[in-house]
Fold each of these.
Amino acid sequence: MYQRFRVLSKSLLLISLLLNMPDCVFADDMGQPISAKEAASRLGVGINLGNMLDAPNEGDWGVRFENDYARIIRSAGFQHVRLPVRWSAHAEKTTPFRIDPVFVARVKTVMAVCHKHDLRVVLNIHHYEEMHADPEKETARFLAIWRQLSELFAAQPDTVYFEVLNEPHDKLTTMEWNEILPAALEIIRKKHPHRPVIVGGGNWNSPDELTHLKLPAEDQMLIATVHYYRPHEFTHQGAEFLGDKAPPAGRKFPFDLKENTIIQEDFQRVAEWSVKNQRPIYVGEFGCYHIASGEDRLRWTRTVAGLCKQYGFTSAYWEFCSGFGAWDPERREWRKEIRDAILKP
Ligand code: BGC
């Protein structure tokens, strides 16, 4: 009881500090004053267009972007889409590491359809396996990809945000990442001085890695990101894509009395970091695989979406219409309870 009271009073204090994060004012490409905090809040609640352009080739994982998706997503009330893209599967392996122009055109088409439906777009580099496995060898190619993306997307409106790299992990620890990140930002900032840029730490954008992440102090248009899937034994139960590593199905949520408190404390630590470092937070992925029982899945989704809302963290559900999907591609309709748990927790 006392523990719960302590967590509650601490979180109320944090929320008031987060609301009072000073607005460092910048001008965006349209000449409008905007701060990173404001840019983050304009994202509102979003959804990931996952397993589409981040598959080795669009369609390989059973889903493709359809133009109607943008309308469906916007009219449900989502304000942005996160667009995961596996650029590394479409760029040459040797210098000059040229990105396939046909693939670039496809990504631009998807973005244009999203803009038409008034959705902001978070464009990232996703599933860059070679970079996580051998950062030393791969950094030149990674930077060459950003050099090209900066040029190719220079004319995009200020409703497009860049995310430097999805989920650094394996050999790409936060320490390694801290060494590489400034070079990537320098490239991006040449053409995009005011564009909001999203950056997370290692261990798959773990909330615990924020404290090790070094964001260049002079860059005030950065938004820090974390991904939230805890407890993994619950959210990833029965997930075939994990093979032998998939936790067994049947895990409930909450599993015991402590689980809610653990989640709440995770969010509180992220909020503390945000206040201390004066950086807004984007929970760029959270979600539960479809194998969990419906009621538990809703409870977990409401808990996490509710905490994002409570702390004023902007967020994006993982994902639209695949294994974690909030929309059923066969019936072509929303799984309404999941949609509402995300949008109205
Ligand atoms: C990965 C997806 C995976 C999801 C949940 C994402 O970052 O890109 O492939 O399904 O996390 O594990």
Amino acid sequence: MKLTKEQFTEDFLRQLQQRFALSVEDSSNYELYMSLGALTRAYYSAEWKSNTEVLKKDKNKQAYYFSIEFLPGKMLKSNLLSLGILETVKSGLKDLSLNLDEIAKAEPDMALGNGGLGRLASCFMDALASSNFPGNGNGIRYNYGLFKQKFVDGYQVELPDSWLKGGNVWEVRKENKAVNVGFSGQVYMVDDGLGNLKPHYENQQILRAIPYDTPMLGFENDVTNVMRLWTVEIPVTEEGNYLTVEKRRAVEDITAVLYPDDSNYEGRLLRLKQEYFFVSAGLQSIHNYFLSLGLPLSQFPNHVAIHINDTHPALCVPELMRLLLDVDGLSWEKAWDITVKTMSYTNHTIMQEALEKWPTQMVYDLLPRLCQIIQEIDRRFVAEKTPQVGPSLVHRTRILQNDHVHMANLAIIGSHSTNGVAKLHSDLLKNVVLHDFYLLYPERFNNKTNGIAIRRWSQLANEQMSQVLDETIGRSWRKNIDDLVLLKAYQDDPAVWEKLATAKRANKERLSQFIMETKGIEVSPAAIFDVQIKRLHAYKRQLMNLLHILKLYIDLKENPAKKMIPRVFIFGAKAAPSYDYAKTIIKCINEVADLINGDKSISGQIKVVFLENYNVSLAELIIPAADVSEQISLATKEASGTSNMKLMLNGAITVATLDGANVEIRDAVGSENIFIFGLDEQEVYGYYKRRDYNAKKIYDEDPIIQKVLNSFIDGTIPNIQREGREIYESLLTYNDEYFVLRDFAAYCSAQEKISQHYADRDVWQKMSLLNIANASQFSADKTVTRYAEDIWQIDPIF
Ligand code: 26Q
């Protein structure tokens, strides 16, 4: 949009006065933020209205991304960037002696997600709008987002995230789009007098679902899609709706908190209620919208694509069936045909413990009609497939097994597309994890490698580097991300190396200052900033990183004269509150950090910093300052990873196993510009097949590993009597589930190589440059375009 600085300051001062009756001098950052947010909203409101009208008039096919998590972070600066007025606003505020970055800090992070899956959903929202696709989000408006993390005596403590308490400027409550969602009770099929069976419900609990819409702006293209999040309310009925405090609480619980588990599936009834609540509300609202277009139902899949993001929204399948059967009166065959054509599903994990299975009885009690439909889907599946492929394959793939509803099976059988999130992961789905389904439906399987919202992770997070790019290759990359490859032409240009190094240095200084302010730890921006930021999970092997740190430390203690290139090891990670082993690792990292940071005898050559409360905003501060990107999961375990892409884009060099998207990153940058180590997929499966992994043997044969592991139980690391023992036992007594010891030596040599390469500034800068230049292939714009073309069949419009 066009906006002069003068117009902006005038609008802003008016907004501040109208909203808070305040002048700039008397306003807090929060009041300034709210006013700026409201003004930003006013700037895009006309586009939002006209987008909605155009879509309704043209009846374009739209995609709906159903996700139980969204993780947008802060939206002020990203909305200003999309509107093309970020610079104008910045300089207008400066004229008022205000600083946009300070004001922006007052916005709470919207953290309605745990990690990769939720952040991916938000990167996709950005990319869909930026690539002119009509694509919307559908999810839950949790009153409390992901817990805030604090460390007390080195232990993780969780605090509630009441992100809504100051109000949310971006959302709009849509009272007139509310729908009812029914739970429990009994259901009978009765003849409606016309020979059709219709469900008759008794004792059903009816809840109200209210949507809150947040516009998702495209980059400089006037597109405003919608992320629709649902909140539960107790309906007002004619007979009155008096509920006891307890019953009210039980209802409100449904959209109260995000489950903080990102890997371990827990079969809680409340979680199932959440899943059905947002699925039913979202589908009803799509169904209502479709009916308002006045098209025949057979046209539904030509106007609606529904995406099931992991299995959490898999109830989309039976819920759409319910609407088509019970509300529209379609035959089973017609309803099923429409459902399968409409639905598509993404798998995000191969970890067995994360696969959702719900006790059939629980599903029956909570959702009797859905359960009937699921049973009928299962019955027909068995009847149709058994003659074709025989009973044993059917037995392994059916939805109902051992009195449980298998959600992945439901999602695959009820959709036309199943994809993994990186090449390796998608191949594993086909060949191992979902091989049985691949035999049944080979044409349904495909890969869609993840991507990231490049603009947020460069232009917003890393202004310093962005400026260097502007000066070097011009500004076109800001819109056409592919133009980042123009940087390759400068791979041997020392002047460009120097500029990029200066930008990196400034980002490191900014992070060093933050580390000093928040942790009181002094770190040198001249050191290598070695970064591992992701959820804490055993398979991601933060522990291996810690073992390497201990090895270096022991080395320095034994050889006091030794000089190494100083390193700052930076961690950011939350553990699921119920995940004891992950919490143990947090405690150990914190204690090792205290030990090393406080040891004057190593003259600051190693520092360890575990930043609290890792979230999107902190990622935006850490990533631009990273030299080394740790992507060290056991091969086959990380479906894709996305922080690997963000770090690469910001010029960090990756140290990685051949897991997830690391493989594609290596292919993009070339083996000489990444440090690959460790077991590969084949070798890992070799161990599983032979069942001959022996951690104790590796320990017995490797004196370095002995020294490092012993430090956990011999008092070297203080305050970890219980935790140190737990780690030690997990590796030696319980045989090291994720092969940390097997990969340790290779990891240490990769780390040594990193130090050698870093010592040669030119070599390092060239590698770093090539990482930036090759990052554009991981743009979420590309990823969603592939989803749009191959899976959703939606066209860019607007
Ligand atoms: C399921 C049931 C009950 C409670 C919680 C859950 C649950 C919630 C979140 C299970 C899994 C998740 C999140 C998984 C996740 O974030 N997976 C990551 O997805 C990224 C995007 O595709 C990948 O890059 C990561 O590799 C993958 O770990």
